[in-house]
Amino acid sequence: MIFRPDHKFTHGAETSKMQIEGLNVHIAGQHILKEVNLIIPDKRITCVIGPSGCGKSTLLRSMNRLIDSVEGAHIEGKILIGEVNLIDSGEHLTELRRRIGLVSQKPCPLPMSIFENVAYGCQIHGIRNRRKLKMVVRHYLEAVGLWDEVCERLNAPATSLSLGQQQRLCLARSLAVEPQFILADEATSALDPIASRNVEELFVKLKNDYSIIMVTHTLRQARRIADYVVFMYLGELVEAGLASEVFDNPQHELTKKYLSGAFS
Amino acid sequence: MKSLCIFKDRAAGGVMFFLTIASILVVGAMAVGLVVKSMPLLESRPLSELLFSSEWKPLRGEFGFFPFLAGTLWVTGIAIVLALPVSLLTAIYLVEYARRRVKSYVFPMLDILAGLPSVIYGVWGVLLIVPLAGYTLLTGGIVLGVMILPLLVSLLVEIFSAVPSSLRDASASLGATQWQSIKKVVLRKTSPGILAAVVLAISRALGETIAVLMVCGNLPEVPHSMMEAGYPLPALIANNYGEMLSLPLYEAALMFAALILFVVILLFNVTSRVILYRVEKKFAL
Ligand SMILES: Nc1ncnc2c1ncn2[C@@H]1O[C@H](COP(=O)(O)OP(=O)(O)O)[C@@H](O)[C@H]1O
Ligand SMILES: [Mg+2]
Question: Is A40 a member of any domain?
């Protein structure tokens, strides 16, 4: 509503497809992602699964170019959002990053109040109007079901919330800059079972408006919420497709083994 | 065997406790010693006159410490005003922007600079800054500022490095530029740490003796601008102790100078600690 004035709290027209072509990532001479080709479908939950160390986080960090901050990282290939290639986007990178939200593994509230956490992104992008900010904060806190719990203490430090609440706050903070994509790297693994379910259900609700890419550490979670599944192994994309197909009828030998729990 | 281990454990605990108490006692003894030694002076005049009178004429028995107090505050103030922005930007550059190679050259250099004896900074000041700015408070401030710079930079580098990269990532993922993230997240997160580092640097500057003694001009008059000569407290003590002690009350006066310095540094540290505690609590940093 702020970055696209003609959209009333929903995101319709803009394309939310991400297309990855020939993505290769090297870190300090090691080949971490090998020739990854992938299409992230619009307004669905895509789960990335695979044994630890196979490059799931690296894939996610490539999608918003946070990989750049890793010293010695080299990225090549194409990550297309609409017409733009994220990988040589030059000065448009920060604007593109606004369109790609991030929820990290451990809740990571910024060192400021609850209110300021949600308003932070808008302020970064030049919105100063106090009334407008209040509206945005309230709207997105409601969207993550946190408003009723915190409306009395918006000026309290964000760190005073429980971990589950912090994670939902981080989600609200991402949503407040109106992204089209949400990247979530094991976003529920640090939470207790109930908080974890809460966040999970939120993602399911949010997929009506956002394209969600989720790295998950539990197959059960992927089975519950994934529309699409991507299976990675040693930096290669082994298999990707509709969740129902990959889970019920995996094509690749490695996928079968992984799904049956032969390794993890 | 077992009992021997337990005995050693207890003994180690006891020894460490004793040493801790002992080091605190040494500081306390120092304070008491200074008070006792400056008693003759303290008994002869009201405290306010000693602290705020500008007349320093030991031969006539006039002991006003205000010129020295002012000198100390001037050089310390100038030093921190000069050193803080430079060290902040340097540390930010080193932590946030510089490549590992650059760091691997700069960090050892900083350690060397921080370890140089202050007389070397003094000589450097006499050779390089005095020809430009004369024997003045400004020169003293510059020399002191350069001296505390490496200390400040290393402290700040450590403080900035301790900020988890996930905070920077979170900010960047919202579309913030690197500079925005630094300004609004890193500096905010580290503000108590920065304050603590500044306190440490100021404490160091307040007590620095040799370097300021060499470049400030050592004129016992109240300075009105930084282009005048001054006479910081530590320089007064170092310059005069052991001489003219036959003058009545002179030794007590020098002891009192040391006491003032002691109290200033103590007060300064205590207040800043209180502020630090409040800030940390308020923002839950
Ligand atoms: N900063 C880094 N420096 C060196 N190697 C890294 C770095 N980050 C990740 N790697 C390597 O990249 C590979 C993939 O890591 P990651 O993407 O974190 O895996 P996953 O998230 O699937 O567990 C691992 O072998 C890891 O050692
Ligand atoms: Mg990972």
Answer: no
